[in-house]
């Protein structure tokens, strides 16, 4: 009798030691997506609302969940590890109707991971949207709002203002699609405008006169106001 009890105890101890928790097993390595209604999702250093914020995630951004426990998920995103509230992430669901409607466009789908092409596509999808000071959504964009929105939809978070964006990335002189172009519209060297280079000597931006539109980088207004370009 004693031997049976001992064997049973050893078995349960082994299972508890080797097997991951239900939360860990159900979440480990799975891709989830941010599902906030507005703003951005805080990623914290610890599983607590008082934990330090290490980064913020945009709506729809993909994250790798390694475990979930007590309403918090441990995630990995862009080389950083932290915690987010589990109620603001979810596995991606496939919209079957949307799949049927877009099936004929399969040949033009942007390759996965090509975030610069994705950002350009998002920006182009908003051509004609009016200019709006501090606007950062399809109801109206200012210049940095369009760039921030377009790259966020492609999974890349950027600072909010043109001046702040000029402090990230690598300076380049030969442009590639997806590079950011910076301008000083008030004279001097202070960056006040940003655009996305789309190739063939053209850029897409939100201008006060035309809203979201495409312009030549050799445009007589923009060319003399050019400050520099950055590659992300």
Describe the protein in words.
The termini are far apart. It is elongated and about 60 Å long. The strands form 4 sheets. It has a 6-stranded antiparallel beta sheet. The chain is of the alpha+beta class and 232 residues long. Helix 4 crosses helix 5 (143-153). It has helices spanning 2-18, 22-27, 96-102, 115-125, 143-153, 162-165; strands spanning 30-34, 41-44, 53-57, 62-69, 72-77, 80-85, 89-90, 136-137, 140-141, 170-172, 180-183, 193-199, 202-207, 211-216, 226-231. Helices cover 24% and strands 31% of the residues. It has 2 domains: 21-90, SH3 Domains (SH3 type barrels); 109-231, endopeptidase domain like (from Nostoc punctiforme) (endopeptidase fold (from Nostoc punctiforme)).
């Amino acid at each position: 009798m004693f031997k049976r009890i001992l064997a049973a105890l050893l078995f349960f101890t082994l299972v508890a030691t080797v097997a991951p928790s239900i939360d860990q097993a159900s979440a480990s390595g799975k891709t989830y997506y941010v599902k906030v209604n507005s703003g951005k999702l805080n990623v914290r250093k610890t599983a607590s609302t008082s934990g330090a914020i290490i980064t913020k995630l945009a709506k729809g951004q993909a994250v790798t969940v390694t475990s979930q426990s007590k309403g918090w998920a441990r995630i990995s995103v862009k080389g950083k590890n932290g915690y987010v509230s589990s109620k603001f992430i979810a596995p991606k669901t496939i919209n079957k109707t949307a799949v049927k409607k877009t099936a004929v466009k399969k040949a033009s789908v942007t390759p996965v991971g090509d975030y610069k092409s994705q950002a350009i596509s998002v920006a182009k999808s908003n051509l004609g949207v009016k200019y709006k000071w501090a606007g950062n959504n399809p109801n109206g964009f200012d210049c940095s709002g369009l760039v921030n929105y377009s790259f966020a939809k492609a999974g890349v978070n950027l600072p909010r203002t043109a001046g702040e964006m000029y402090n990230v990335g690598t300076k380049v002189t030969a442009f590639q699609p997806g590079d950011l172009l910076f301008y000083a519209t008030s004279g001097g060297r202070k960056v006040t405008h940003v655009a996305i280079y789309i190739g063939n000597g053209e850029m897409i931006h939100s201008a006060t006169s035309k809203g979201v539109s495409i312009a030549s980088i050799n445009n007589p207004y923009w060319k003399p106001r050019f400050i520099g370009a950055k590659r992300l």
